[in-house]
Design brief:
By secondary structure, the protein is α/β, with parallel strands linked by helices. It is 42% helix and 15% strand. The chain has one domain (5-230): TIM Barrel. It has an eight-stranded parallel β-barrel, surrounded by five helices. Bound molecules: phosphoenolpyruvate.
Length: 250
């Protein structure tokens, strides 16, 4: 059984005081939830949120990191710094980073390797654009991303790996992939994992859906056999709405 993960990507929203307030609001609302819950605020909020979420069922993740440990990389944050303050997860390869900051599969691959080496749980994002979907390229694009981002992982412990299928056209647009379409692509990703790391690992790896997930559509998505949770953007910024997603089965 794969334990569901519901992760909130707060993007560039919420100041430190707002972030702390949101987690304080969230804590009682999600008590007793069976899903693994993660919130991913901006870098400057991480330290406070690790403290605020202590003794709760909320884990804290970063939205990005660099793959080197330390050195002359102005403006970057490494896995060493994240681990040092108690961060457990890191979103890698989000489509906004691919689009605005020109991250490619080879760079994301180095980040995945570094995250695993430092015992951070990477939430690796993959997904096609609308143009690619309309051209019938969705499966090829996702396959290339999975293979490109998960290279050279032999001898690494993949238990920590989480993947999020996020079709770019569904992010922040209000358009959700149908649960059947999402399930089909996620099943396809799992097949790629069988080739890359074997059947047992592929069966264990949590693969989430992301793209305009709300409390009103999470149940249908979670009823699908391959979907193991959600990466949630906009709807994770409101405690009541996010708790409705987290408690999809209650
Ligand atoms: C995201 O940013 O990862 C995301 C899925 O955003 P939204 O839920 O707002 O579509």
């Amino acid at each position: 059984m794969r334990r569901p993960v519901i992760a909130g990507n707060w993007k560039m929203n919420k100041t430190v005081s707002e972030a702390v307030k949101l987690v304080e609001e969230l804590k009682p609302l999600i008590e007793g939830a069976s899903a693994e819950v993660v919130v991913c605020p901006t870098f400057v909020c991480l330290n406070d949120l690790v403290k605020t979420s202590k003794n709760s069922n909320i884990g804290v993740g970063a939205q990005n990191m660099y793959y080197k440990d330390s050195g002359a990389y102005t403006g970057e944050i490494s896995p060493v710094f994240l681990k040092d303050i108690g961060v457990e997860y890191v979103i890698l390869g989000h489509s906004e980073r691919r689009q605005y900051f020109k991250e490619d599969d080879s760079e994301i691959n180095k980040k995945v390797v570094a995250a695993l080496d430092h015992k951070l749980k990477p939430i690796l994002c993959v997904g096609e654009t609308l143009k690619q979907r309309e051209a019938g390229e969705a499966f090829d694009v996702v396959s290339a991303q999975v293979k490109g981002c998960l290279k050279d992982l032999e001898s690494r412990n993949l238990d920590d790996l989480i993947i999020a299928y996020e079709p770019v056209w569904a992010i922040g647009t209000g358009k959700t992939a149908t649960s059947r379409d999402a399930n089909e692509v996620i099943g396809f990703i799992r097949k790629q994992l069988v080739e890359l790391c074997g059947n047992d690992m592929a069966e264990k790896t949590r693969i989430l859906y992301g793209g305009s997930v709300k409390s009103s559509n999470i149940k249908e998505l979670m009823n699908m056999s391959e979907i193991d949770g959600a990466l949630v953007g906009g709807a994770s910024l409101d405690a009541k709405e996010f708790s409705g997603i987290v408690k999809f089965n209650l």
